[in-house]
């Protein structure tokens, strides 16, 4: 049953018609619990609030699978505006971007040029930019684009998904790159990804421990307190300095745990999505945790 529900919401997240219609609806279905508004002003307000609580942020200007060059260029301009504002306001904040928003499906060189413009501006302000990992169909190309960008830019990192069998090998090739480890949010075939949650969790722990023992900064992206507790204990046993890693969670999830980790002295970073293109992101969050449906029901019946 859990798999059917998951597949249903992931199917909705990929539906082009619903994604484009949702932009016209404005926020609905309880999406505002997980998305910090539609404008740069609204997201900066959320960042300031979290920064005041000792929490760093990474911003995602929502959008993905763009098939039109003008739209991709507009997305790039919005991201550059965001960088200018982060610097102007001196916020503790970096960026998360998706290559399919910046034209990867249209023309790879065009996407790379867009990324270079973003990284040039970010470098000038000493801001880090993380490339989110999307579905497996874009996996190899995403790693190749990263390799290309890293020839000129050191302020770029990537995400590794523990549901992929090849995650360990790829992580070994990325020793010097700042990485976020996550479980993986897309529906992938058993040929490339563990179907079983226990294997995904065990692989997550193995990958994270391997990174914690290495030299490069790692973000641990999960809401799973079992994993977080085990990694806290591992860091303590192995005298791993707190400045070598951070925990990351998504905006609106487990706020109590987010604050607790920050209060305990761990580096903590909240991933904040914003913008009109909220539908696909929101459907993936429902796929991961059907309990989030409660918020949808409340929104439909009580507002
Ligand atoms: P999971 O959903 O596996 O839950 C494990 C356990 O944790 C649950 O059984 C429950 O006990 C507890 N739990 C989880 N959520 C809870 C809640 N809200 N309240 C109470 N208990 C809860 N994916 C991707 O493919 N590419 C990417 O680039 C990213 N980026 C990214 C950034 C960040 C900061 C995060 C946190 C996640 C991503 N993801 C992602 C999504 C990721 O791959 C994954 O789908 C989700 O994080 C869900 O997995 P979790 O590890 O959080 O817990």
Automatic annotation (TrEMBL):
<protein>
    <recommendedName>
        <fullName>proline dehydrogenase</fullName>
        <ecNumber>1.5.5.2</ecNumber>
    </recommendedName>
</protein>
<feature type="binding site">
    <location>
        <begin position="183"/>
        <end position="185"/>
    </location>
    <ligand>
        <name>FAD</name>
    </ligand>
</feature>
<keyword id="KW-0472">Membrane</keyword>
<dbReference type="InterPro" id="IPR015659">
    <property type="entry name" value="Proline_oxidase"/>
</dbReference>
<feature type="domain" description="Proline dehydrogenase">
    <location>
        <begin position="43"/>
        <end position="294"/>
    </location>
</feature>
<dbReference type="Pfam" id="PF01619">
    <property type="entry name" value="Pro_dh"/>
</dbReference>
<feature type="binding site">
    <location>
        <position position="284"/>
    </location>
    <ligand>
        <name>substrate</name>
    </ligand>
</feature>
<feature type="binding site">
    <location>
        <position position="197"/>
    </location>
    <ligand>
        <name>FAD</name>
    </ligand>
</feature>
<keyword id="KW-0547">Nucleotide-binding</keyword>
<keyword id="KW-0274">FAD</keyword>
<comment type="pathway">
    <text>Amino-acid degradation; L-proline degradation into L-glutamate; L-glutamate from L-proline: step 1/2.</text>
</comment>
<feature type="binding site">
    <location>
        <position position="285"/>
    </location>
    <ligand>
        <name>substrate</name>
    </ligand>
</feature>
<dbReference type="InterPro" id="IPR008219">
    <property type="entry name" value="PRODH_bac_arc"/>
</dbReference>
<feature type="binding site">
    <location>
        <position position="98"/>
    </location>
    <ligand>
        <name>substrate</name>
    </ligand>
</feature>
<keyword id="KW-0285">Flavoprotein</keyword>
<dbReference type="GO" id="GO:0000166">
    <property type="term" value="F:nucleotide binding"/>
</dbReference>
<feature type="binding site">
    <location>
        <position position="161"/>
    </location>
    <ligand>
        <name>FAD</name>
    </ligand>
</feature>
<dbReference type="InterPro" id="IPR029041">
    <property type="entry name" value="FAD-linked_oxidoreductase-like"/>
</dbReference>
<keyword id="KW-1133">Transmembrane helix</keyword>
<keyword id="KW-0812">Transmembrane</keyword>
<feature type="binding site">
    <location>
        <position position="133"/>
    </location>
    <ligand>
        <name>FAD</name>
    </ligand>
</feature>
<dbReference type="GO" id="GO:0004657">
    <property type="term" value="F:proline dehydrogenase activity"/>
</dbReference>
<dbReference type="GO" id="GO:0010133">
    <property type="term" value="P:L-proline catabolic process to L-glutamate"/>
</dbReference>
<dbReference type="InterPro" id="IPR002872">
    <property type="entry name" value="Proline_DH_dom"/>
</dbReference>
<feature type="binding site">
    <location>
        <begin position="222"/>
        <end position="223"/>
    </location>
    <ligand>
        <name>FAD</name>
    </ligand>
</feature>
<keyword id="KW-0642">Proline metabolism</keyword>
<keyword id="KW-0560">Oxidoreductase</keyword>
